[in-house]
Amino acid sequence: MIRLLSDTVFDAELAFAAVLAVVGVAGLLLAGGARIRRGAAAVFALVWLVSVLYMTLRPGSGLGVRLNLVPLAFDGTGSTVDAVLNVFVFLPFGLLLAAAGARFVPAFASGLALSLFIEVTQYVSDLGRTADINDVITNSAGAALGWGLGFLVVHTAGWASPRIRSARMLQAAP
Predict the structure, then answer these.
(1) What element of type H or E holds 12?
(2) Contact, 48 vs 93, CB < 8 A?
(3) Which is more confident, 110 or 31?
(4) What distance in Å separates the CA atoms of residue 135 and residue 158, rounded to the nearest whole number?
(5) Residue in 76, 138, 140 with CA at minimum distance from that of residue 107
(6) Is pLDDT at 163 greater than 60 in this prediction?
(7) Which runs of E-coded beta strand occur in 15-138?
(8) Cβ within 8 Å of residue 4, ≥6 positions away
């Protein structure tokens, strides 16, 4: 019975991660115009943020350890899958920051700060969840990866600001 409940919760979290990824991609695509890019990205980022805070700060099962400070120590398939999910959950955040025109260092720092906030809150509030250094690492990696992908899309699709487009034209001139 506990195994079935655990599988159901995992399936729900996997579906939730997929929805968050869709929110990030949709936000990036819909924010394509330079004029509306920041506003649309901000709306999608707010939806993403509320969703992630709900997913991570609601009470947990209380079955695991309360604090894990051993970095990159995955003790089985479940924790490995959890790490991959964490990357994909924070990937839309990076996409949306790139769509909004954020530079890499502030985008990475934002992902790191948000992840630290979540993990410290989980520990301090004793919600029955594990505060895990691996979550901080994988969430930050997801934000960085998302920013990189978003940066490529924004610059490949020609969504860059007029200032960047002008600089490119000057470089291309003979």
Answers:
(1) helix 2-30
(2) yes
(3) 110
(4) 34
(5) 140
(6) no
(7) 67-68, 131-132
(8) none
Q: 63 CB contacts (<8 Å, ≥6 apart)? A: 128
Task: Tabulate helix, strand, coil % of the chain (nearest 5).
Answer: 75, 0, 25
User: CB 9: neighbour CB atoms within 10 A?
Assistant: 12
Structural tokens at position 82: 């959890």
Asked whether the predicted pLDDT for residue 6 surpasses 50, the reply is no
Query: What is the spatial distance between Cα 163 and Cα 82, in angstroms, rounded to a whole number?
Result: 41
Question: In this prediction, what percent of the chain has a pLDDT beyond 90?
Answer: 25
Using a 10 angstrom Cβ sphere, with 0-12 exposed, 13-18 middle and 19 or more buried, the burial of residue 145 is middle
According to the model, what pLDDT value does residue 22 have?
A: 65
pLDDT grade for 168, boundaries at 50, 70 and 90: very low
Residues 6+ apart with CB under 8 A from 22: none
DSSP state, 68? Answer: E
Report yes or no on whether pTM surpasses 0.85: no
- DSSP state at residue 76: S
131 with 67: CB under 8 angstroms?
A: yes
**What's the average model confidence in pLDDT over 110-118?**
97
Three-state SS at 49: helix
In this structure, the number of other CB atoms found within 10 A of the CB of residue 2 comes to 8
